[in-house]
Structure formats: C-alpha cells, structure tokens
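Proteins fold. Shown next:

***
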Amino acid sequence: MDRTAPAPPQFPAGAYAAPSGYDDGRLRAQIAEIERAPVRLREAVAGLAGDQLSAVYRNWSIRQIVHHLADSHLNGYIRFRLALTEERPTIKPYDESSWARLEDAVSADVEPSLRLLEGVHTRWGHLARSLSQEALLRSFYHPESRETVPLWRHLDQYAWHGRHHTQQIVWVREHRLAP
C-alpha cells in the first residue's frame, strides 16, 4: 500500500444530484448506464486477486464493494418490480454495513457477484426500456428516508450508485495498487 496516497474522496464520481423532475432524455441515458455498469465494474476489478481484492477504500475492501453492488442492486431491482406490481409498496430497508461484514462479502470470490450483477442489470435494463412514462412515475415508499420514490428517480440513483462504487475501485487501483 502506498502510504503517500491521498485520502480517498467521499464521492470519487461526484456527489449524487437528483434531477428536479422526470426527463426522458436523462432517463434513457441512465438506463444505458444501468446496462453498462456490470461491464465497467468487471473492467475495474480485472486482474485483481487475493490481497489486491482486500485493498480498502475508506471502510470497505474492493471485494466488499463488489459484493455490496450485487446486494444493493438486487434489492433495487426487486423494489422496482414491487412498485410496478403493487400500489406504492413500502420497501424493506436493510443494513448494508452489516451485510458487508458477513463472511461471503468479506472473503468470497467476486465472480458470482459480477455474474449476478450482469443478470440483474440485463433484466433491469430490458424492463425499464419497455415501460411508459406513466409506469416510470409509479413509486414505492422508503420508511428510512420517509420518501415516496418514483421509479425514474430510483433508476437515476442506481445508475449513479454503480458509477460511484466502481470509481472507488478505480481510485484504489490508481492510488494504492499502482506499481
């Protein structure tokens, strides 16, 4: 580890900025981002193994970040589907930090999570592209934030979330694992 590396930034891909309203052009770009996210993540971890996957960005290792993305985006996809099939469902939050401390997130190979993310994002993109604006205005209720979240904004947040965590891995590669 390079001890001269700067402290990792809080938001290496920039802080999330929610759009003020539904924007079809932005939505289409974010769906494309959802579809590309697994490829970008796979590229970010390409060639990393063992101790390299244990390199830490702030609080989590690269391995934990990969597993977190799979966990989070699987939950996000399920929430998306619930909002399409139920009237404003209340979603179940989960403690992502506790999930990241579970043994599979700490020590398991990242390949199953990469494959899971590829499958989830392929289906999510396909489903999202098939929806009308009316369907994308459907929503769910998030009890932690006490917000009603429309599906178009949910997609926007998850497109950013994938970029955010993938850029954390890129940062570690550039600042802590660089030769």
